[in-house]
Structure formats: C-alpha cells, structure tokens
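User: I'm putting together notes for a lab meeting next week and I want to include a structural view of one of the chains we've been expressing. I don't have a solved structure, so I'd like a prediction I can at least talk through. The sequence is below, exactly as it appears in our construct file.
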Amino acid sequence: MLITEVKTCSPFGYTSTHSWEHLFKIAQKIGDMVSIHTDERWGGSFELLKKACDISTKPVLAKGIHATDEEVQQALNCGATSVLVVGRLPANRFLHKVMIEPNSLDEINDLDKSLKVVWNARDLKNGGTKSATFEEARNVFPGWLCQASFIKSFRDIHEKADAAIVGTHLLEYYRSRSGISRVSKTQQRSSILRRPAS
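Assistant: Thanks for the context. Below is the predicted structure for the 198-residue chain, given as structure tokens.
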C-alpha cells in the first residue's frame, strides 16, 4: 500500500515550493491512500482534513501527533478513514481506526501484534534519522508495519514493508514512477520495432 502525504512544510526546515492543492492532486493520482496533516507545524489543519475527505476518491489518513482522544474523534468526524497516533495508545474503541507510531523499539515491542503500526525513520524530536532502522523494527514487530520518511523512490521501500508513507519527497517519488513508465513504454516500442514481420 502506498500512502501519499500532502505536506507543505515541516518544523525541521522543509518548505514545499508547491501549493497544497497541487500536492493533493499528485497524492490522489498515485496513492492508494492519501495522508493529510492536521498539525499546522506540517502545514495542516482539521479544516484541510475535512476538505480532503470531502473531495478525495481515496481513503484518507489523518496525519499528526493526536495527543488526545478528542483529537482522534475530531479527525474521524472530519471523515478520516484512519488516524495516526504518535507515542501512545488511544482508548480501545479507537484501536480499529488508528495507526500507532511508536517512538522507539521498546515502545513497538510492547504493542499488540494486531495493531497497525508505523515505523517513522525520522526522529520527531530533532528531525534527524533514528538510529533504529525499519529492518530492526520489522524484526521486533511481526504484524502490519508501515515504513515512513526518507523515501524518494520505490527502491527505498523495504521489501518487508506492508505499506509506505511518502511525504517530503512526494514529487521526486512521482517523477521516479513517471520515469519508469516512460522507460517501459520505450521498451515496448523497441520490442515492436524489433519484432520480425509476419
């Protein structure tokens, strides 16, 4: 599953040169699910989440810390299919509607294996790279596990990932996919040209 994220900025110095609307169009085009931030530090809001849910033809993930169950409920009220929750477990009634993002391998080890879990390679304390890798997270957690951050092309997605979130490098990822399509079409044309006449 490819989850494509609409992100116009981040608290770690990233600012997109493209509008929210343009990024949303690309996210809708190539993603199986669209991720919309609710936190203004990442250029998001609950209003933008509601807007996306109203017009999206794909399921929508509400992306954010969501430090309280009230925020989880607010995201669901906006129409989100699923809600990301970072560093905590919400009330049991929400567990079938959330993805949990643990901060460490110790946290992921404590999670029920039936949960949907996101391993973010980015350390949200400083924006750097976590020392623990997706491979290590996968070794600890055998359930549904999503890879997130620092994904620039399909080649960066781990073969054992059940899903991947592409955000900061969404356009780069899109161009890499387009390049593959162009190569494939060129190969098809070359094959036709090489085919002997009947």
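A couple of points you could mention at the meeting. Helices lie at 20-30, 46-55, 69-77, 105-109, 134-140, 170-194. Confidence is low (pLDDT under 50) at residues 180-198.

User: Perfect, that's what I needed.
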